[in-house]
Amino acid sequence: MAAPPAPTAEEWAIAGRYTLKNSKAYRYTWGQQVRSMMGTVVEGPDQGMVRFRVEIAPDGSLASLDTLWSTSPVAERLARQAIANMPRWPATPTGRPLVFEKTVSFTPFASDGPPLYKDDCLPDPPVFRNPFAWDGKSVSEPAAAKPIEKPDPQAMEDCLKQLPQDSIEAETARDRRLMDQWGWGASQPARYMLGLPDIAASPGAVEPARCLGRARLVNHAPARCGGQSDHDHG
């Protein structure tokens, strides 16, 4: 897979002024710039991923870069070389240090699709806490869930004005992530756990694989393609 194109000046301009969700546009554009300078990747032992903890100073200079984990020393080396040779980045959108974690994928079958921005003005959903959790000492009372605060209408209107236009590529990338997460994507590890073939490698085996997977999930018995398994008729 060839390296993706470097972000355009317009994309960096949007990233330099987008403050929502910990400067989401800046973080994505930074990752795209790194990957674009790492070159073409060929399937083999050198492919892999590396995750960094990055701190960028308010003026756009790199303050710190720590490797959290890596599956390929070649990928880490190329990523660090790219970061060292990158052009000067814009100042951070908030005027404060920007700290984030970023995974750079150096593989022939994966790319970091652009993010969606349309929901960035909505409040973050509350973190789930078990209302019945008890420490064994205090009075056992279910904790009441905190209601989600409705945003101020004027603040919401002002926030919506800075949202960039979402692209078809961003929608496609979101759908691909959901498909992989819930087991419908060809790269989902659950397919291999079920013994199903790779969709991309064996397109003709998709329908038999669906029947087999359904039978294993429902009743652990063989299924008839195009119909139901024997146990489904009872």
* Number of DSSP helical runs: 7
Secondary-structure element string:
HHEEHEHHHH
Amino- and carboxy-terminal Cα gap: 50 Å
The share of residues in extended strands comes to 5-15%
Question: How many E strands?
Answer: 3
Helix proportion range: 25-40%
Arithmetic mean of pLDDT: 78
Task: Give the biggest sheet.
Answer: 3 strands, antiparallel
What do you see in this structure?
- With 234 residues, the protein is α+β, with helices and mostly antiparallel strands.
- It has helices spanning 9-17, 20-36, 73-85, 153-161, 168-181, 189-193, 206-218; strands at residues 48-56, 62-70, 98-106.
- A 3-stranded antiparallel sheet has the order 2-1-3, covered by helices on one side.
- The model is unreliable at 190-194 and 198-234 (pLDDT under 50).
Helices and strands, with pairings:
Layout: H1 9-17, H2 20-36, E1 48-56, E2 62-70, H3 73-85, E3 98-106, H4 153-161, H5 168-181, H6 189-193, H7 206-218
Antiparallel strand pairs: 1-2, 1-3
Helix pairs in contact: 1-2
Brief digest:
The protein is of the alpha+beta class. It contains seven helices and three strands; from the N terminus they run ααββαβαααα.
Keywords:
3 strands, globular, disordered C terminus, single chain, alpha+beta, 7 helices, 34% helix
